[in-house]
Amino acid sequence: MPGTRFDGRPAADRGANADRGHTPAVTAVSPTHYRCTFVIAGSSYVRGINTLAADRRSFTEVSWLVARPAKKGG
Fold first, then answer.
1. Predicted pLDDT of residue 27
2. Distance (Å, rounded) from C-alpha 48 to C-alpha 61?
3. In total, how many domains does the chain have?
4. Which domain holds residue 61?
């Protein structure tokens, strides 16, 4: 998510979905975890939690559709 802040405030997506009007809001939870919510047209549609690996070379993502929170995927 290029240009993303980690303060929980929505920011225009400048990545692959920039032309779709996606707005991510990312919150740092710790030095190795962050939460994100993607909004389109004012409605949240995806939430997720990313965790940085101990070697800091990769991360694990768990995300889900807001409408289907029981269907979390990684």
1. 95
2. 7
3. 1
4. 18-67
Residue 18, classed as helix, strand or coil, is helix
d(CA 53, CA 59): 5
Question: Does the predicted model carry a pTM greater than 0.90?
Answer: no
Question: What is the mean pLDDT, run by run of 10 residues, along the chain of 74 residues?
Answer: 74 73 88 91 90 94 87 66
d(CA 43, CA 16): 19
CA distance 52 to 69: 22
Domain contains 72: no
Paired tokens of 28: 């740092």
Q: Is residue 4 part of a domain?
A: no
Question: Using CA atoms, how far apart are residues 28 and 13, in angstroms rounded to an integer?
Answer: 17
The answer to whether residue 39 sits within a structural domain is yes
